[in-house]
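Q: Second attempt. The first request was missing the SMILES, so the protein and NAP are both included now.
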Amino acid sequence: MKVAVVGATGVVGQEMLRLLESSPLGDSAPRLLASARSAGTKIRWRDAELTVELLNDDTVLDDLDVALMAAGSETARKWAPRFVAAGVAVVDNSSAYRLDDEVALVVPEVNPEAVPRGPAIIANPNCSTIILLLALKPLMHLAPSRVIADTYQAVSGAGRAGLDALEREATGGEFRIDDPFPFPIHGNLFPSIGEVGADGVTVEERKMLDESRKILGDDSFVVQGTCVRVPVARCHSIAVTMLFRSDDPARLSSALDALRQAPGLIVEEDPQAPPTPGRLSGVHEVSVGRVRAPSSDALQLWVVGDQVLKGAALNTVQIAELWSAKNG
Ligand SMILES: NC(=O)c1ccc[n+]([C@@H]2O[C@H](COP(=O)([O-])OP(=O)(O)OC[C@H]3O[C@@H](n4cnc5c(N)ncnc54)[C@H](OP(=O)(O)O)[C@@H]3O)[C@@H](O)[C@H]2O)c1
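A: Got both inputs this time. The predicted holo structure:
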C-alpha cells in the first residue's frame, strides 16, 4: 500500500508517521504533504529522511492507495473528493464529512463493519467521542436512559498552536490574541469549546451527541455534558455518569466484567490511583477508573485517553489497516 499523510507536520500527522513505522501500511515509505509553510522540510521516517511535498493542483495523486488526512476541514473539503476521484481511499480527521450520510464514521472497536469497500472518504470521529465510546460501547447492553459526560480536554486538541500557547504562558510569556483559546489557558480553564449554538450547547458538545448516535446506530441515545479546555498538554479525561430507569444492585459487577473484556480498554481498579493524563500520554489504550454505583440507578466512571493517539492518529491508522485488509 502506498500511503500519503496530509498534514504531516502537525500534531496528529507527526503521530501518524510514527505509527506507520510499525504498521503493515508502512511497507513502503509514505509521501508527506503539507502547505507552503512547511513544504521542503525534512522529516526522519525509520532510517530515511523524507521531504514534505506541497499539496497543490500539481500534486500527483494516482500512485497512492490511501491518504491519511489531518489538515483541517477546509483542506479536507477541497482535497478528499479529489483523492477519491483519483482512486485513493481517504481517512479524514476533520469534522468536514463526519455527519455526511454517505460517509462512514468509524471507531474500529465499535463499528468496524462500517468500513467501506473501494476508494471512499471515511471519517475519523471527534477525539472525545472516540474515547467516550471505547468505554461506553461495552456498557450499552445495560441500556442507560441517559449519559452525562463532562470532558477535560487537553490543549493539544487545538493542534500545535494550542500546545505553543500553553508552553509560552507557562514560561512567563503573554497571552496572544491569535492564540486558539479566547483567554489565557495556563493556570486557568475554559468551559466552552467551539461556537455556542442558540440553545447554549457548544459545537464540541453537539459533536459528542450527533457522532455517538451515528456510530452506535441509535438515534435515541442521549449524551449531554460540558466540554472544558484545561491546561493539560495531552490526553482528554471524561467524567461519565450513566443513568438508568430501574434499580439494579448487580449492575456494577456486570459493568466491571464487560469493561475488563473490552478491546482497547484498560480498567484501573485501584480507587487511590485513578487514570491521569500525565501518566497516559503516549499510551495507545484508553483507561477507565473509579467505576462505581453511587446509587442503584446510576453508574459513574472516569475515562482518560491520549486524544492525539486513540482520538486521532491511532484510530485513523487502525481504520486504514481495516480498509486495507478489506480491499487488499
Ligand atoms: N490535535 C488533536 O488532538 C486532534 C484530535 C482529533 C482530530 N484532530 C483534527 O486533526 C486535524 C489536524 O489537527 P492537528 O492538531 O494536527 O493540527 P496542527 O498541529 O495545526 O497541524 C495542521 C497540519 O495541517 C497542515 N495544513 C494546514 N493547511 C494546509 C493546506 N492548505 N494544505 C496542506 N496541509 C495543510 C499543516 O501544514 P503546515 O505545516 O504546512 O502548516 C499541518 O501539517 C484537524 O482537522 C483537527 O481538528 C486533531
